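User: My collaborator sent over this chain with a note saying "see what the structure looks like." That's all I know about it. Can you take a look?
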Amino acid sequence: MTAPIPRDIPDLPAVPGIPALLPSPVPASAVLEPVRRPLTAVFRLLTALLAAGGITVELLLGSPLRVLSYFTVQANILLALVLIASARRAWTARRPLPGAVTGAVLLYVVMTALVYHLLLANAASPFSMTGTAPPTGWHAVANQLLHTVVPAAAVLDWLLLTAPGRLHVRQAPTWLLYPAAYLVFSLIRGELLPAGAPGDRYLYPFLDVDLHGYKSILANALLLGLSFYALAVVLAVLDRLRPNPIRHRAKTGFRLQPPVG
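Assistant: Without extra context I'll predict from the sequence alone. Here is the result:
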């Protein structure tokens, strides 16, 4: 015969040395079902094509080396490459590009548009370029594409087709590395070109050492750098506050099954 099972079994003492299990939250990205976004992909691809078209026109109408030396052209090239990659990810339902990348190119093209419209194309600005012959024909079309249409499309893509919360203030110093590198490039380029090259040594009036000297140029560069940083902070803060335009498209990967019987 076996001994009867006691009604009350005392609790066993805890085994020392075994740590308690910690909670393991599952990130939302692990349970979200990938969703294809063909309209977003088409919009981004069209924006990239507009940027590429404006750059191509500028290259055909001017000296390629001079055209490629403009910050505007370089920023639009970077934007076009990023938009093409983003369009492919939206079309194939892949995770979007890091916000550090998309935020950087957004900052560059928006700053390009602001500098153009507030300084270069503004007759009241001390750095206005309206005194020279205004662009006409295809050159005027390319000029508006790169300085107005493409930056506006990039802002619309950010506001209407991109999930918020991907830009951070801590990324702003990294975004400023490229403008700082362009400043160094612009000054070195101006020193290497011959002094008699009209309008080719320094492409922007606020960076023209021949007209303003290095002291004024560095002061202008500092003001522009602070403006870049302030705009980066504004974009990051707005990205945290704006509503999510694509929230309704997210679907979880779990399905609740009805009870059996």
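A starting point for your reply to your collaborator: The beta strands are 32-33, 251-252.
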